[in-house]
Predict the structure of Vacuolar ATPase assembly integral membrane protein vma21.
Amino acid sequence: MSSRRPEKSYADAVASAPKDAPANSDVTPAVPANVIFKLLGFTLAMVAAPIGMYFLTVNSIFSGNSTWAGVTAAVAANVVLFAYIFVAWQEDQGERAAEGKKAQ
């Protein structure tokens, strides 16, 4: 015989598996909710701010010059990106200070 089949099928192995699993499993999320909300907020800002700045400035400030309106939109995207990095840096500084106090 070139191929040997196991004596138990997969269905039999699953059916005869022990059913007494531990009841105290950890169901907490891997990422806290405030981190998810912060990321969603900055994602929305990264989409809305440049598009909004472009359409706000293309006709009202730059009189139809789409190049300068595009530059304004790029600056707005960079401002949102810088704000996200700054908020993440501040959060990290707070965590480090808390760990330092906890270690003392």
In short: Residues 66-103 form the longest helix (38 residues). The helical segments are 10-15, 33-60, 66-103.
